[in-house]
């Protein structure tokens, strides 16, 4: 996995407090701000996860804004490359799915396009936290994303189903009331990023702290 960046190695805290909720809300708003130039959208997404793990680690005295912009600077190049890949994979496959449905292609083609789209979605969900978490070359980042996706396939599917439900609810809000939809954007990124941080960094902790066994096959407690 390569070296950890300057973030805590301890296990994430499972306790959600009003302070953490406020910090993630601020992170979501900073992300919206950071995506305005478009070219910084990828780095801003990486920065959210860079700061998010610090929040989940209960690190004291966090300066969210300062850390967020540090995360953008630190991950700008790889974040930009990943953002371009996101546009190609998610945008291209999304267009393919829409085309297959509108042009009334066979069910097999529609299902195949949907499955490819889901795999691309999982890939993108894993990639940005991985960039934020580890010092690595971009090629190795992509390799590690693929390895983690298939190693923790069950967890990945569960996470992406949850995210799909979140997104569907937000789309429904926009359809019901445009104002309610725009207001929800102030909160929805925070909920989504918290969910990804909580679940993916739990996976990263398992990778970084593999269980060791003694000669009898029993786990060694550290």
Q: SSE string, helix = H, strand = E? A: EHHHHHEHHHH
- Share in β-strands: under 5%
The helix/strand class is mainly alpha
Q: Largest beta sheet: what is the strand line-up?
A: 1-2
Morphology call: globular
- Rg (C-alpha, Å): 19 Å
Query: What is the percent of helical residues?
Result: over 70%
Indicate the mean pLDDT: 85
Low-confidence stretches: none
Number of strands: 2
User: What's the total helix number?
Assistant: 9
Question: What is this structure, in a nutshell?
Answer:
The chain has helices at residues 18-34, 41-56, 64-74, 76-102, 107-133, 138-151, 153-176, 178-184, 188-208, and strands at 3-4, 134-135. With 222 residues, it is mostly helical.
Chain-wise SSE layout:
Layout: E1 3-4, H1 18-34, H2 41-56, H3 64-74, H4 76-102, H5 107-133, E2 134-135, H6 138-151, H7 153-176, H8 178-184, H9 188-208
Antiparallel strand pairs: 1-2
Overview of the structural elements:
The chain has about 220 residues and is mostly helical. Helix content is about 75%, strand content about 0%. It has a two-stranded antiparallel sheet with strand order 1-2. Helix 7 runs antiparallel to helix 9. It is globular, with a radius of gyration of 19 Å. The two termini are about 20 Å apart. The model has no long low-confidence stretch (mean pLDDT about 85).
């Amino acid at each position: 996995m390569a070296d950890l960046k300057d973030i805590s190695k301890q296990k994430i805290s499972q306790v959600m407090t009003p302070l953490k909720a406020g910090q993630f809300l601020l992170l979501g708003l900073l992300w919206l701000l950071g995506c305005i130039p478009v070219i910084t959208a990828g780095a801003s997404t990486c920065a959210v996860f860079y700061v998010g793990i610090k929040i989940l680690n209960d690190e004291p005295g966090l300066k969210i804004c300062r850390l967020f912009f540090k995360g953008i600077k630190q991950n700008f190049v790889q974040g930009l490359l990943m953002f371009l890949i996101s546009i190609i994979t998610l945008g291209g496959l999304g267009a393919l799915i829409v085309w297959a449905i509108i042009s009334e292609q066979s069910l097999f083609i529609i299902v195949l396009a949907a499955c490819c789209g889901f795999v691309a979605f999982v890939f993108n969900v894993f990639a940005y936290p991985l960039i934020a978490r580890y010092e690595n070359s971009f090629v190795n980042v992509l390799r590690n994303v693929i390895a983690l996706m298939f190693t923790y396939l069950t967890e990945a599917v569960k996470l992406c189903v949850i995210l799909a439900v979140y997104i569907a609810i937000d789309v429904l809000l926009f359809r019901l009331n445009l104002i309610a939809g725009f207001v929800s954007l102030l909160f929805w990124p925070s909920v989504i990023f918290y969910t990804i941080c909580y679940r993916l960094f739990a996976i990263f902790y398992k990778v970084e702290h593999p269980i060791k066994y003694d000669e009898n096959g029993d786990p060694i407690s550290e």
